[in-house]
Amino acid sequence: MLRRILAITQKELIQVLRDRATLTLLLLMPLLQLTLFASAIHTDIKHIPMVVADQSVSSASRSYLNAMVHSQYFDVVATVPSQTEMVRAIDGGQASLGILIPPDFAARVKLRQANVLMVVDGSDSFTTNSAYSMANAISQSYAIGLIQRQVSPLNMDVRILYNPDIKDLWFLVPGMIAMLLQALTLSLTSLAVVREREVGTIEALLVTPIRPIELMLGKTIPNLLIAIANMLTILLAGVFVFGVPFLGNVWLFIALCTLFAFSGLGLGLVISVASQSQMQAQYLSLLLNFTGMFLAGFLFPAYALPKVLRWLGGIFPMTYFIPIARSIFTKGVGLEAIWGQVAALGVVLVVIILSAARLFRSSLD
């Protein structure tokens, strides 16, 4: 049995190694995606362009604007005389935020009744939320500074566990490992059977003494090796190139990554058996990848989704693996802290593998 599995595995590896362009892409894609994510995705947006209409022109208004600029979250790109000009600058895309300081601002500061008008470009909701949150926080901080001499302020001691500097990469790298493991195992394995069917070699395999389970394992093992190699590439690059600390047990992490990869291989086989062409298999794997990415909590927490979507996300193995990866990678916890997610992942894996094996066997009959 082992000899026959190794023979199929060798055949699949030779096919992969012959296609050097695809092999190069598979090996470079993780580093490219990690670099792009590190450069392009930031939940903490700084240097938001801001237009100012300072009708007070006082030391109080200048102090307030200095607080906005010195935070590094806002850059004043234009100063205009009126609200109309301020809105026009936002309409033209010159700025994402407008601040109107009324003429009586300085007098109202003394009466502790000061107010400013903030106009935000709502066409970009991501920037809108950041701009609104930071401008509001800076305004509150400025107000507290004004009354400190009259009222004792409330001091809040804050401790941020696991990611004290709130660095985006510390959050993204474990999720990227999950995303790429699913993407690679799905895309590679989804073509395994349908490709043989299209080129007509499936009949030649059926007349050999190879059993369906041996054929299934022989076709999935090479893809598993490629996926694990890519996982290790991201892990090493994240730790040694981008400085993301790995706090957990590396062998536990690799073992659970392998477990998760098997679920992707099973889903890929289901797609491959159910598809009539390679193009259909590729479209289905892309659909599952994107759906899983948004429902599993890769960028946004799964608990924020509507109940129906949370239930739908429970079908995807990545929903359980992302918390596992982040807990081991960033928190450094052991199996005792994540056994619930591991058990859920195991249940989903068993269902997927049994379904894939049954469909694979029936497709060969």
What does this structure look like?
The chain has 365 residues and is an alpha/beta fold. The chain folds into two domains: 2-41 and 166-364, no CATH class; 48-147, abc type-2 transporter like domain (abc type-2 transporter like fold, 3-Layer(aba) Sandwich). It is 68% helix and 6% strand. It is built from 15 helices and four strands. The chain has helices spanning 2-18, 20-40, 59-70, 83-91, 105-110, 125-147, 168-189, 192-199, 202-206, 212-241, 250-274, 278-295, 307-313, 318-331, 335-364; strands at 48-54, 74-79, 97-101, 117-120. It has a four-stranded mixed β-sheet with strand order 2-1-3-4, with helices on both faces. Helix 14 (318-331) runs antiparallel to helix 15. The protein is elongated, with a radius of gyration of 27 Å. The model is unreliable at 151-156 (pLDDT under 50).
Give the H and E element order.
HHEHEHEHEHHHHHHHHHH
In quaternary terms, these chains amount to single chain
Strand order of the largest sheet: 2-1-3-4
Radius of gyration: 27 Å
Which SSEs are present, and which pair or pack?
Elements: H1 2-18, H2 20-40, E1 48-54, H3 59-70, E2 74-79, H4 83-91, E3 97-101, H5 105-110, E4 117-120, H6 125-147, H7 168-189, H8 192-199, H9 202-206, H10 212-241, H11 250-274, H12 278-295, H13 307-313, H14 318-331, H15 335-364
Parallel strand pairs: 1-2, 1-3
Antiparallel strand pairs: 3-4
